[in-house]
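Notes from hallway chat w/ T.B., transcribed later so I don't forget. T.B. wanted the structure written out for a chain they're using in a teaching module, and asked if we could keep both sequence and structure tokens in one place. Agreed to drop them here.
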Amino acid sequence: MNPVIVGTGLIAMDVVLRGEAQVPVRRCTGGTCGNVLASLAYLGWRAVPVARLANDRAGEAVQKDLKAWGVETRFLRMPSTRPTPIVIQRLLAGPGGEPVHKFSWTCPCCGSWLPRYTAIAKAAAAQVVAEIDEPAVFFFDRPSPGAIAMATAYSAAGALVVFEPSANGDPRTFEAALKLADIVKYSDQRMAALPRHLSARKQLEIQTLGRSGLRYRFAKGSRTTAWKLLPSIVARELVDSAGAGDWSTAGLLHHVGRTGRAGFESCKHEELEAALHYGQALAAWTCSFEGARGGMYERTVRQFRKDVTTLIDGSKQPKAVVQLPRKDGELAGICPSCAEPSRAGRVSRGARPVRSVA
């Protein structure tokens, strides 16, 4: 039986643009939660995301994309009165010509603010827990009352609870998330370090360091081990580093989360390091493609496994990846404000954004 992961947090429509172009290279599901669960579905897991997506074009596209990868979508449209979140990612050249990416929450066509994330309600969380009662892993990246309710229930059922914050947020909700989490993973660009751990269980803290790799430590109550550094695996060709952290999470969970918290707690240190190293290989692999999960659309699972094995082995480089340009039409077909005839095209790029009334 395939292991089950339930997750809630940012699930959005990613729109990837090259430079200042307005025609997307790719439109696909994004957001930390969306990427982690879609990646694990690609690795053979039963993935069940929970989100408040609207019945709009972006929501329909996200659902269609996730369905294509075998992700369960029945909890993607929990009651919502707001449009589906949309994130713009621009692929740019850095000062030295190296590829960099930037994220934006404003439409490049009309200048309006794009829809943002809305947390699930506690009632919706209770509905999911009643139907999916014993997942191996529960993942969340945005602390909210609904997410905390799910984490509490799933932790009591023996699930491995994984929290990947992008910011501290509300102090009490954030503290509750830390108490429930078995694994906490975050970027050094977001946080220097977490507050002292409050969990009485074995807890793994992972801080990603970009090109320098990652460091990790364990905590139990007031006792915390020293940090240990794991250097990164060098990508064959750096095209786009977006989504690398999400793939590293998926790789780690693929090895240590299959049997829930019990399997994680019984994991030997060398097994944990091997799992972290596998996650780093997946992170290096995705950097050779445009978009957070571009490789999924351009490589078969068999090719993916061969590429990752080669990266882990390090003895030779994987075969060159052919980038497949894909144009999905103008962004105006997705942005809620562009859909309003009176607003479309009224605000040029670089103008002060007009907040969406949707």
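Follow-up for T.B.: The chain has ten helices and 13 strands. Might be a good example for the class.
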